[in-house]
Amino acid sequence: MEFATFAQRVAAIEAEPADLEIVALVTELFEETLESAPLEDGNPCSDAGHGTATPDDFDTPDNLEIVARFVQGRVFPAWQSRTLDIGPSTCYEAIARAAGTNVRTDDVEARLADIGEIGEVAASYDFGGQQGLGAFGGGSSSANTTDGTDLTVREVYETLSELAAAEGAGSQDRKVDLLFGLVNRCSSEEARYLARLVLSEMRIGVGEGTVRDAIAEAFDVPGGEVERALQVSNDYGQVARVARDDGLEGLTQLDLAVGRPVQAMLAQAGTVTDALEEWEQAAVEWKYDGARIQLHYQPGTNPDAGATEVFSRNMEDVTDALPEVVEFAEETLEEAVILDGEVVAIDDDGTPLPFQEVLKRFRRKHDVEKAREDVTVRPVFFDCLHADGDDLLEEPLTIRHDRLEAVLCDGDERSRSPENVDGLSLLWQSDDPEKIESIDAEALEGGHEGIMLKNPESTYSPGRRGKHWRKRKPDVETLDCVVTGAEWGEGRRATFLGTFELSVRAGEAGDELETVGKVATGITDEKLEELTELLEPHITAEEGQEVDLEPEVVFEVGYEEIQTSPTYSSGYALRFPRFVGVRSDKATADADSLERLERLRD
Ligand SMILES: Nc1ncnc2c1ncn2[C@@H]1O[C@H](COP(=O)(O)OP(=O)(O)OP(=O)(O)O)[C@@H](O)[C@H]1O
């Protein structure tokens, strides 16, 4: 499929306001991939991610798989840790180079400050005159060869894969060269969507539900089964291809794979009364104050050679940052498992430390051993999604928990009481509010955050913030907001960013951002320096003291009240917002939504 055709279809989708029509247009787009040229042989690119995923995951993607991801603004499957790792400046530089010898990166940035959206900026240049300069980029990629043929979605995918693989010295130059090679072959319209794709800003209103419905429609398979297949595979491309090639039967055979992370099940805020009203009994667990982890363990042929991978709740690979978790897995586990849990920082006595301590370790890439000396972590597991070939998502919580307990203690230890099983989160079942209150008090006393109330009968729903898991914390609710702008301080604080603009997710697909306020209180000078260091690389435009920021960093903020307000684009404002911390374990997609803000207001 030509990239120009893709850009044209996507433009029509973007212009369409009605949800049902959008599904119809995405369905047509998927059907159209069938008519486009079949796979070229000998394609050098591999879809391999890492670890122990099944061979299915290593297939070379075809047009449908690529398009099913591109249309959602993704290049690679959600479960892969692979990223393009392109900052906005790389993209601006490639656009400037392709736009002509007299266009500089500054010009692109100036247009962005003016227009406010990178797609529109890219589309405002004419790249046609540069066709003969393809070799300029010096890359070997097909995108850099200018044989006069039109750019295809496959070439875009291959070049972006090559770009993602660039590492080490000179890799940034290589990325610019490769991207330049692509932009150079684009029409203005193609450049619009290419720029948005590489900066993860597709935002055409196509959410996960739209793609699910379009796959069901295009290949005549039940939506429910598509949904299940998406949950276990976490790959829209693969599910679309299987639905097309093997229909319903193929979809039902898609299973979890050790090494391929699954989206985490999430919780709502809740009370004991609500839980007991809805369920006969509640499963009660401590709410550990750490960071969510998903552990994948595959035993090796020799007992010491098991493969362990640890993922964050964003499915990022955090294995290297958490050697204690790897050691725990190697010492404790014997069968292939996928476990869901929390990694908690502890002091020398094993008492839990506050959440901010875990973050010092969580995504660390350098000096892990040194950091380990300063902060010790330990894993606690509360769910088992897969054990020894059995997928357990459809099993009730109590069965999954029993399996978890069995996995965490070997044969001899089975008789031990659960309290003594290392790494096991305890679970009590009760219909007695007083008993639950006493578990809560015990949790708080033990340094935990509160309790979780879970429906004992509930299945595991990846990616869902449903009613079956409720969290009960003594604090008032906080909001996790995306930082979309900031202001340089004054006087003593002139070199620090000081006031931070906060936004929540909005729109049908949750991929738009609307502002809700600015936070400036609750931040020490030391913290401001740290935040400036964190945010400065994400500045996209500056005017006077104000800066625009790429939406990459999530702040947890407290507030006294949510008011309606014409000042911010969401229509609401946080009253007395207060900085609580950086949620470095969260991506923009995990930030709170306008819908939640409205719910909290009620
Ligand atoms: N026993 C437990 N069962 C499930 N989740 C737990 C448990 N103990 C701690 N947690 C943590 O609590 C989180 C559930 O709350 P929620 O889904 O709202 O996540 P969140 O947005 O990170 O919320 P919060 O800021 O309250 O942690 C889980 O993601 C997990 O990290």
UniProtKB/TrEMBL annotation:
PROSITE patterns: DNA_LIGASE_A1, DNA_LIGASE_A3
Active site: K287 (n6-amp-lysine intermediate)
Entry-linked InterPro entries: ATP-dep_DNA_ligase, DNA_ligae_ATP-dep_bac/arc, DNA_ligase_ATP-dep, DNA_ligase_ATP-dep_C, DNA_ligase_ATP-dep_cent, DNA_ligase_ATP-dep_CS, DNA_ligase_ATP-dep_N, DNA_ligase_N_sf
GO function terms (MF aspect): ATP binding; DNA binding; DNA ligase (ATP) activity; metal ion binding
Region (Disordered): 36-60
Residue ranges constituting the ATP-dependent DNA ligase family profile domain according to the UniProt record: 370-506
Reactions accelerated catalytically: ATP + (deoxyribonucleotide)n-3'-hydroxyl + 5'-phospho-(deoxyribonucleotide)m = (deoxyribonucleotide)n+m + AMP + diphosphate
Classification via Pfam families: DNA_ligase_A_C, DNA_ligase_A_M, DNA_ligase_A_N
EC number in record: 6.5.1.1
Gene3D superfamilies: DNA ligase, ATP-dependent, N-terminal domain, DNA ligase/mRNA capping enzyme, Nucleic acid-binding proteins
UniProt record, GO biological process: cell division; DNA biosynthetic process; DNA recombination; DNA repair; lagging strand elongation
Keywords, ordered alphabetically: ATP-binding, Cell cycle, Cell division, DNA damage, DNA recombination, DNA repair, DNA replication, Ligase, Magnesium, Metal-binding, Nucleotide-binding
Cofactor: Mg(2+)
Binding site for ATP: E285, R292, R313, E342, F382, R465, K471
Function of the protein: DNA ligase that seals nicks in double-stranded DNA during DNA replication, DNA recombination and DNA repair.
NCBIfam families: dnl1 (TIGR00574), LigA_Halo (NF041331)
Family per record: Belongs to the ATP-dependent DNA ligase family.
UniProt protein name: DNA ligase
The organism's taxonomic lineage, starting at the top: Archaea, Methanobacteriati, Methanobacteriota, Stenosarchaea group, Halobacteria
